[in-house]
Amino acid sequence: MVTFRMDTTPRGERLQKVLARAGVASRRHAEEMITAGRVRVNGRIVTELGTRVDARRDQVELDGRRVTAEPHVYYVFHKPRGTVTTLSDPEGRATIGDYLRDLTVRVYPVGRLDFHTSGAMLLTNDGPLAQALLHPRRAVPKVYVAKVRGVPTDDQIERMSAGVRLEPVGNEPAEGVVTRPAQIDVLRAGPGESEFSPGRGTTWLRVTLMEGRNRQIHRMAEAVGMFVMRLARLSFAGVDTDGLRPGEMRELTEKELTTLRATYLRADEAAAGGNPRVQPAEAIRGKRNVRRVGGNHR
User: Fold this and answer.
1) In 10 A of CB 101, how many CB atoms?
2) What are the backbone angles phi and psi of residue 39, rounded to the nearest 5°?
3) Which of 5, 63, 133, 226 sits in a 20 to 30 Å window from 240, CA-based?
4) Rounded distance between C-alpha atoms, residue 211 and residue 180, angstroms
5) 109 φ, ψ (degrees, to nearest 5)
6) Sequence-ordered alpha helix ranges (H) in 139-195
7) Reduced to 3 states, what is the DSSP secondary structure of residue 149?
8) Sequence-separated contacts (24+) of 187-192 with Cβ below 8 Å
9) Is residue 145 domain-shared with residue 219, that is, in the same domain?
10) SS3 of 295, please?
11) Of residues 42 and 282, more confidently modeled
12) Both 145 and 188 in a single domain?
């Protein structure tokens, strides 16, 4: 049985993080458990949220029961349209949690996808890797296919590719934000305007972003006078949903996981994971086990 030693140095982990990683609860719920006096470390009740523990030495208990870390797991999930990227929703909408009920290990989504956007989403309980993949400095590629109304002009494509200023939303600066350069390719264009079909026609674009903002592609398109009718994410950090139907997921292959760690974690973190550094790949392949997960497939 693993034992834990109280550790106030920066090398320890926050207690709520240890509880969340063990699959006990979300980090926010774990904080509530701590402040309620339900958690003991080495036999002593701890109520301070800043408490750090050494996961290799300290003994952590919740309501008198030993807490042990779950093994790290890694999945790619094909998120269906019309689902919320949370494990539960107070408004009663379908969530990705509806599709994860058969899993014996608690996992969390790496980032988000909009309610009406489908596609590749990574799920894991590996906090350091998830944080690395979400860090802006890592510039993790996210590839989408977008269906837009009409036929965009070369000028619209060039402006959207070079970076555009977005109107602020949420906590963004009042002056708005300027997007990073993006790779945009025209996959297929429908008929343009004519006297018989004014304003009709659609175009399919492949958009590669190196950042992730709220409704970013929709907002980028609106900034240059385009309208996105449908959006799907083909891949995240080189991991795609090939062979997966909406609502299905598979475990990452060893090659995919090695590439993610070597490319996006710091060298010391990658070494700790026991994975050698390898060259990043646009598409990484290997044996894939596809499964449909249980839950409410609305």
Assistant:
1) 10
2) -115, 135
3) 226
4) 7
5) -75, 145
6) 154-162
7) strand
8) 187/145, 189/151, 190/151, 191/151, 192/150, 192/151
9) yes
10) coil
11) 42
12) yes
For 131, the domain range is 74-136+239-292
Please, what is the average pLDDT of the chain?
83
Q: Which helix (H) or strand (E) holds 13?
A: strand 13-14
In terms of domains, do 196 and 228 share one? yes
Q: What is the pTM of this model?
A: 0.72
Residue 189 to residue 206: CA distance in whole angstroms: 12
Structure tokens of 65? 């029961």
For residue 196, pLDDT over 50 is answered with no
Q: What is the pLDDT of residues 74-101, one digit of tens each?
A: 999 999 999 999 888 889 899 999 999 8
Residue whose structure tokens are 């894939």: 288
Domains held by the chain: number: 3
205-255 per-position pLDDT tens digit: 999 999 999 999 999 999 999 999 999 999 999 999 999 999 999 999 999
What CA dihedral angle connects 59, 70, 131 and 209, to 10 degrees? Answer: 180
| Number of CB atoms found within 10 A of residue 31's CB | 18
